[in-house]
Amino acid sequence: MNNKEIDVISQPANQEPRTAAYANTPTSHKAFPRDQLKIIKELGHGAFGQVLLAEASGMTQGSKVTLVAVKTLKDGAGQSDKADMMRELDLMKKLPDHCNVVRLLGFCVEEDPPYIIVEYQSRGNLKDLLKDSRSKGRRVYGNRHGPSNTSKDLMKFAKDVADGMAFISSQRCIHRDLAARNVLVAEDMTCKVSDFGLARDVMNIRVYERRSQGPLPMRWMALESILDDVYTTASDVWSYGVLLWEIVTLGARPYPAMAPSEMIDKLQSGYRMPKPQHCQEELYVMMLRCWYENPESRPTFKMISKELDKLINKGKEYISIADIEESIYEVVLKDDAGDKV
Ligand code: ACK
């Protein structure tokens, strides 16, 4: 493959969108010709959906092909799966571009299977990236920058996600499935919020009450979402607190030793996940504030982003990776049903 001819559309953090002719057209006009997509391989799949790596020709000016990720349905998916996908597309169309949110590049929905074309993020999902950094003996970060930068990299991941979510919430959108598995990492290590499958546009209501049934990401959900089916930006903030815990523990599973029913009982009686030993108090206090029972007492994403910025600028090592007690986060439960139950 000739690298000069391949362009991965991705903006570096804190920069305006790049001036690529197609990528800058308004999202409502991003219907893309299916025959200009060449599928290369599968990147991953779920029960009814799959994500493919593809080359798109004519998507940007000056490069012959662009590497993109294509979200589509697998054989056997039903009408409700297609309706969910269309809802996800409609929501993505309404979201302006932001460097910490995976960008919609186009769609092919005139015939089946429907395609949603998004930026390809070469480093995959954040959860796996965090876990891989463990198995490589922390060398992924340590060798490159020296051990003190490990904490800095992780803090930057947390800040990127907070910025992406501050933007999403400013657009009156509730994500409802914020977790490290739904954050993608670009080549330059910028984190981008992804997977709007459960997201809802709440332009006029601010609170979303779930009516349809389906598996739920219980371990990331706020108490009011679990108990009353109520979702707001403040419940996304709760999930962000869990994501912060995932970053600190290098991708461990939240509430490691608990089944969902026990977790719910304990949360109701005031229990919260304890401070990982290798995490500094300032960062743990931020998690705890995200998990306040009263949604209105939780910080906003804007506040979280500002506070993280301050912590980063202080330059202290907030996450001492060398001291992580891996074994306590490696609990595998019998009869575990996965992240969504
Ligand atoms: O870790 P991964 O490679 O990152 O495995 C999952 C898989 O597809 C199922 O979601 C990958 N994936 C999803 N969207 C993208 C994307 N935009 N760029 C690169 N990989 C993606 C995800």
UniProtKB/TrEMBL annotation:
Biased composition (Polar residues): 11-20
Pfam family, one: PK_Tyr_Ser-Thr
List of residues binding Mg(2+): N182, D195
EC top class named in words: transferase
UniProt keyword annotation of Transmembrane helix present: yes
UniProt KW Calcium keyword: no
InterPro entries: Kinase-like_dom_sf, Prot_kinase_dom, Protein_kinase_ATP_BS, RTK, Ser-Thr/Tyr_kinase_cat_dom, Tyr_kinase_AS, Tyr_kinase_cat_dom
Compartments where found: Membrane
Span of domain Protein kinase: 37-312
A GO molecular function held by the record: metal ion binding
Keyword entries, A-Z: ATP-binding, Glycoprotein, Kinase, Magnesium, Membrane, Metal-binding, Nucleotide-binding, Signal, Transferase, Transmembrane, Transmembrane helix, Tyrosine-protein kinase
Active site, renumbered: D177
GO cellular component, one term: plasma membrane
Membrane topology classification: Single-pass type I membrane protein
SUPFAM superfamilies associated with the record: Protein kinase-like (PK-like)
Superkingdom, taxonomy of origin: Eukaryota
Protein name: receptor protein-tyrosine kinase
